[in-house]
Each structure stands twice: as C-alpha cells, then as structure tokens.
Request: fold
Amino acid sequence: MLSLHDVNKVVQSGEDQLQLLDSINLDVDKGESLAIVGRSGSGKSTLLGLMAGLDRATSGSIELAGQKLETLDEEGLAKLRASHVGFVFQSFQLLASMTALENVMLPLELAGLPDAEKRAHEWLEKVGLGERTHHYPTQLSGGEQQRVAVARAFASGPDVLFADEPTGSLDTQTGEQVADLLFELNREVGTTLVLVTHDPRLAARCSKEIIIEGGRIVEAAA
Reply:
C-alpha cells in the first residue's frame, strides 16, 4: 500500500541546507497500522506529508496505492488523495459554518460520490453521533469534534488514513475513546492506518512502529 525507497527531504534555510529526512526506507502493507514516533522536530510530520502526497521529496521514490508520487503533477496528486487517502488532524479541521453532517458530506460531494448524505449519516452513526448530525462544531465537545473528523476521513472509503497526533488535543479518557474508534474502524474496514504520535500507549497498539531522530529511522519494530 505504501513503499518508500531512499527518500530525502532537503530545504533551504538562508545560505544553509537543512536535511529534514535522510534516506528513509519503509514499507506498509494493506490493512496494517504504523506509528511514527519521535521528538518534536525529528521529521515525523514531514514524513507524513510526503507519504500522503501533500509535499514532495527532494529525492527518492514514494509509491502510494500503486502510483509513484514523483511521477504525478499537482492535479494528479489531488486526484490520488481524493480517491485513496483520508486525514485526521490534531486540530479537527471542521468548518464552523457547517453541521456535523455537512462536514462529513462535503468531501463526498466534492469527490462526486453517490448518496453523500446517506453515507455521511451512516458514518456519524458508526462513530456514535447519530443524534448530533445537525449540531455545529461549537456545539460539540472536543472528543465529539474529533469523532466527526474520523467519520469524515473514513466516509469516502480511503485505502490509507493518515492521522497526525489525533488524540493530542484531547484529555486522556476522550483520547482513548477516539483511539479505540480508529483501531476498530481500521479492523472493520481494512483501511491502512498511519499515525504520528507522542503517545507510547497509542504507538504500542499499532502493528508496526518506527522511531525517527534527526530525520532518520533509528528503530523499527513490528
């Protein structure tokens, strides 16, 4: 599902070049769950962005859902993400002017998927928010907002779900509930799950774990 070969990311900082990622090699099979762990500034989110096609590697090759990202233009990358990728962020990224139902429906409608409203209702039911479909984000707790974000991410049937600190802004109990939901849906639907996290308990629940320091994978465990 995901394959990285000798991936490097270098950015210019004044007169200097900063190596954010250094010779990353990684394979993630369909249905697996991968935790990317490391201190702030280690390159975790940079790696996630490259894997998801949100940014481009300086060199190396990344294959996602059978397509090499370096061969695609921006339109091609956008189509690939729309067809194969879901996202959950620490900050929820819900549109305040839309209800929970409308937030879940929006990407389905943009992708031209049929029965957007029906599918959005079903996924809000799955995450336990069937009675909150017409509530706006400001009327929902942090945990409920993140569950809307999870429903939105899974509703389009992605092959891979990328989650960047999905429990980072939640209290311990609510964070565990959201994590339970992510792994339950990962098992139920077979979506490959890639998590960036500081939480060792969340990382331990994944089938694979890599630790990044200074842009390099220093430890990998399965």
Remarks:
- Residues 128 and 218 are 39 Å apart (CA to CA).
- The beta strands are 2-13, 16-28, 33-37, 59-64, 67-68, 85-89, 160-164, 192-196, 208-213, 216-221.
- The longest strand covers residues 16-28.
- The chain is about 35% helix and 30% strand.
